Fold this protein.
Amino acid sequence: MPRAWLIAFVALALSCAAQAPQTAEVSTLDTPAIFTSRVNLVLVPVVVRDKNGKVVGTLTKDDFALTDKGKPQTITRFSIEKTGAPVVPAIVATDEISPGQPAPAAEAIPEHFVAYLFDDLHFDVQNLLWARNAAQKHLDEFLEPSVRVAIFTTSGQGSLDFTDDREKIRDALNRLQPHANQGMTALDCPPMTYYEADAIQNRNDQQAQAAAMADAGSCANIDPSTPGYAQLVQAQVQSAVSREYSIGFEESRRALLAVGQVVRRLAAMPGSRSLILVSQGFFLSNDHRPDEADIMDRAIRANVTVNSLDTRGLYTLMPDASQPGPLTAQSGAIRQQFHIAEASANSDVMAEFASATGGKFFENDNGLEQGLKLLASQPEVIYVLGFAPQNLKMDGSYHSLKVTLKNPSGFEVQARRGYYAPKHLADPEEQAKQEIQEAVFSRDEIGDIPVNLNLQFFKSSAASAKVTVVAKIDI
């Protein structure tokens, strides 16, 4: 039977039992019903493809090997997510059919929910136009009766909830506007980006510090022979670092928050669920990583696949003419190195979300429309491996993961790259609520308990209906 219904019934029974009137003696012994099966359980989605790129769906738990920080782990949970399987057949209520009349064709039940999240907090005008035009052409072809589409933005402006109305979708796309910080200007002294500010503030990068100080002395017209020159320049640099780090951190935090909110929205949808992050990329400092890991875990548990599209396409790392150039010869070479490193770091978040949830990352390609088409089609089979780390320290440290096949056979393995250890234990009550929600919308099936589930639908009028659910358990 479907795992979701079984766990939902168990959860409902436990909830009813907890709410029922109790005697004083029993009440003192009663404790809240808590799901404990996933304490410290790390879930690792895996997609396996053959040499032709076709998804392989015939593997078992014994075919996989998994390591955490290089140490072999025991796979304690194994499930297969079949995203292409239909959820509920469409049936027309018999009381709506006149005697002697043929039954009308049943309307298609939505089975695929796709949320497009446009990162307007980090878009420039040109990249937004490219993304919008590609999305319009893609959705004109992709939207089918069983598909529902939603448009969300990281700024929270101009969102559209799930619909199949093409006009509403076009209107939402046409209303997209960039809401990014304008970045460095000629008035900033010294010029600074969020990535550079993080390098100076959190990574103690001496090269970045030296380049910023040289630029600060130049743009502020401070003569090196001025008494207290080093202190004056240092104060100028610290002001720029503080300013850019604050702005960049908040924009990245809002973008992450938007991803998490869309994942929660998708988690409440039945059927196949995927999120497509459309972005130029954005940088995450180490302070963002716990939030990123929480969103990944939520997406994995809710069977939400996150795909990413880098709208920069094929780009060259040339200096941006709209931004102030290096002010000194000393900063020129260092700035170029940082430009290259920053471009790579900005795409990391998109690659990480895709690899962690069994999705795809489309990059280094100008065919954005084809990229959206590729991302909208989920892999037919996703394996989910679960293991419980032994002696896990609550220190927030990063744990690298590696999934391999015991018999590779030329197969390509795409799997979650790692996770961050929690800094504290999860709240049991909140975890229980999340477990119930995940179970209700899960597509996993289990055969451990022999349960037959029958549903009967009765519609007495246009305004009232009743569904009877009969569960038979062979004890």
In short: The longest helix spans residues 229-267. The radius of gyration is 26 Å.
